[in-house]
Structures are given as structure tokens and as C-alpha cells.
Automatic annotation (TrEMBL):
This is Polycystin cation channel PKD1/PKD2 domain-containing protein. Its main location: membrane. The lineage of its organism: Eukaryota, Sar, Alveolata, Dinophyceae, Gonyaulacales. It is found in: Membrane. It is a multi-pass membrane protein. The keyword Disulfide bond does not apply. Keywords: Membrane, Transmembrane, Transmembrane helix. GO terms for cellular component: membrane. InterPro entries: PKD1_2_channel, Polycystin. The chain crosses the membrane at residues 21-43, 63-85, 125-146. Residues 22-153 form the Polycystin cation channel PKD1/PKD2 domain. It comes from the Eukaryota.
């Protein structure tokens, strides 16, 4: 009896130790994954290393909505597969097994012959419907969503410093740490400057922070200029670029239509002014007699005709300048649209004013 009691205690301690080892393995696994996440967080300090995390963060909303659709499709096909193959195949005998098997089929791990053994026609229809819709369409849509955001994020990080350049700058800052002014102090000094001052030059920076060495001022202004240029030249994803091209083309067409209406109004007013000029009436046996208005009306007509002529001249010059600008803008838009869509430049067309574009 004492031996049995000791044996039971030994088994209990062994079971406790086995539970502790299992918990330790799970903890070590989760800790390794947590370290990877911490690495990704540290990559945010370097724009080129942060492309992956920024892409995932920017596409998280679209991916979330996409996963809702993908999940509904998978669970629906899993239910259909369980009813069709469940009484014969172990992979579809339970709903959780069916969902897991549908996911494996989506990844490319399947046995088509085994599915067709149950029902050749319905098995083939179920498989091809699921494979075409999920593996070929939905997965490519997910890839398109990610790549669309990746193109913009990588374009934003293209002009940033590389990891080695950033390391050299960091070593340079550490080397001049005793001589250079801390950036927090510089920011406090700059916050006290007048907001009406436009453009921060090296002289203005040295005047605002007198204790700053010229080398630090040069490095500070150059870094600020590079960041401003990078912010101004931020990339667009394919959707935003196509939307911008379409909006610009519509705006150019509206401008052309308005210019055409303006030309019609000017021509109509000119014809109206000429119609209001003194008329010549021919008599039966003599020379034509000029029918004139009163001197005051005649003077007003002459002034009005002069104004119309000047307006026509100015409008004609403006129209020609606008047409040239529109023609150039259309050529640039066609080149941009061709570069985005991978198409050849469109054939020449005529604009609303009748000029070749």
C-alpha cells in the first residue's frame, strides 16, 4: 500500500512536470513570435525596412473586408462538401475538418480523384467551382489589394536614406553629440519663431539658435528639405492615380466646353453689334442713302463696337493660350494613362473648339 502511494505521487509529479514542459514550449514559441513583432516595430525607424509593415497597416481595412467575403465563401463550400462527401471521406466527416480541408484545397493540397469517386459529376462541379472562384479569383484579388498599397508605400520610401546611410548619419550625430545642440531644444526654439516667416534658411536657424554650430545647421536644413521634397512627391496607388487622371480629363473637357461657349457668345455679340450699325437703303433712281441714328446713339454704338473688338481680341488670345495648354495637358495625361495602364498612346482627336489635339 505504501508502494502504491509512492508510485501515485511519482506519477502525479511526472504529470505535473510534463504539463510544465508543455507550457514552457508554448511560452517559448509565443516569445519567439513576440520577438519578431518587436523587430517589425523597430523597423519603423528605417523607411525601407518598414515597407512590409506599412503595407500591411495601410491595407488592413481592405483586407479585413475581403476576409469577410472569403470566410463566407469557404464556410459555404465547406458545408456543401460535408453534405456531399462527409459520409465517405474522413476529411469532410466533420464541419471543422471540412473547413480545414477547404483551406488546404485553396492552398493547392487536394486529391481530385478521391473527390470524384463519390459522385463524378457533382464532385467535379464542386471542386472546379471552388477552385476557380477561391483559388484563382479571390486569392488574386487579395494579392492585387496588397500590391496596390505596396506600390504606393515603396514609392514613398524610394527617396529615403538607405540603412547604411542612416547608420553613417547616426554615427556622425553621436560623434558631434557634445558640440551639437539637442534636437528637442532646437524644436523649442523654432516653435517660438514668428509664424509669418516663410522658409527656414541656415542664417535664420543660426539666428534663432545662436549656440548651434554651422555644420549642424546645414545638416538640419538639408534633412528638412529632403523630408519636405519626399512629402511633396509622395506616391499614389494605382486606384488613386487612375481616379486623378479621369478627374483631370473631365476638368479639361469642361474647360474646353466653357471656352467654346465663350467664343460663341463673342461671335454672337459681334454680329449683333454689326447688325445695329447704320443701314444703307437704296432709292429707286439714285444712290443709296445712309440711315443714321442720333449722334448720341451713334457714339454709343461706336464705343460698343470698339469694346467688342477688344474683347474679341483678348478672348481670342486667351482661347489660343488655353487651347495650347489643354493640348499639352492632354498629351501629358495620355502619356500618364498609357504608362499606368500599359497601353499605347491614344489616337489624335479633336477638342470641342475644333483644334487638333
Amino acid at each position: 500500500e505504501r508502494y502504491l502511494h509512492k508510485t501515485l505521487l511519482l506519477h502525479q509529479e511526472a504529470a505535473g512536470f510534463a504539463s510544465f514542459v508543455s507550457f514552457y514550449r508554448v511560452f517559448a514559441c509565443n516569445y519567439a513570435i513576440f520577438i519578431i513583432v518587436r523587430f517589425f516595430k523597430a523597423f519603423q525607424a528605417q523607411p525601407r525596412l518598414a515597407i512590409v509593415t506599412n503595407t500591411l497597416a495601410s491595407s488592413l481595412s481592405d483586407i479585413g473586408h475581403f476576409l469577410v467575403v472569403l470566410t463566407l465563401v469557404i464556410v459555404s463550400f465547406a458545408a456543401a462538401g460535408m453534405f456531399l462527401f462527409g459520409h465517405r471521406l474522413l476529411e469532410f466527416s466533420d464541419y471543422s475538418f471540412a473547413v480545414n480541408n477547404c483551406f488546404m484545397i485553396m492552398m493547392g493540397a487536394f486529391d481530385f480523384d478521391e473527390l470524384r469517386e463519390e459522385h463524378p459529376l457533382m464532385g467535379a462541379l464542386w471542386f472546379w467551382a471552388y477552385f476557380l472562384f477561391v483559388s484563382l479569383i479571390l486569392l488574386n484579388m487579395a494579392l492585387a489589394i496588397v500590391m496596390d498599397v505596396y506600390a504606393r508605400v515603396s514609392s514613398d520610401a524610394a527617396d529615403s536614406d538607405s540603412m547604411f546611410t542612416q547608420a553613417v548619419k547616426f554615427v556622425n550625430r553621436v560623434w558631434h553629440r557634445r558640440d551639437w545642440v539637442s534636437y528637442s531644444k532646437v524644436l523649442r526654439k523654432l516653435a517660438q519663431l514668428d509664424e509669418s516667416i516663410k522658409g527656414l534658411t541656415i542664417e535664420k536657424l543660426c539666428d534663432a539658435v545662436p549656440e548651434m554650430p554651422p555644420e549642424q545647421a546645414i545638416e538640419f536644413v538639408q534633412s528638412g528639405s529632403e523630408l519636405e521634397s519626399a512629402e511633396a512627391e509622395r506616391g499614389l496607388n494605382m486606384t488613386d492615380a487612375l481616379r486623378m487622371v479621369s478627374w483631370t480629363k473631365d476638368a479639361v473637357e469642361r474647360i474646353g466646353n466653357k471656352l467654346g461657349i465663350l467664343v460663341d457668345i463673342i461671335m454672337h455679340n459681334r454680329a449683333k453689334a454689326k447688325a445695329a450699325a447704320p443701314a444703307k437703303v437704296a432709292q429707286p433712281g439714285g444712290a443709296p442713302v445712309v440711315v443714321s441714328f442720333t449722334p448720341r446713339a451713334q457714339e454709343r454704338l461706336i464705343k460698343l463696337e470698339g469694346r467688342f473688338e477688344r474683347l474679341e481680341t483678348q478672348a481670342g488670345e486667351a482661347v489660343h493660350e488655353a487651347v495650347d495648354s489643354i493640348r499639352q495637358m492632354r498629351a501629358e495625361l495620355a502619356a500618364l494613362e498609357g504608362a499606368i495602364c500599359g497601353k499605347a498612346p491614344a489616337a489624335k482627336q479633336r477638342d470641342p473648339l475644333g483644334f487638333a489635339s
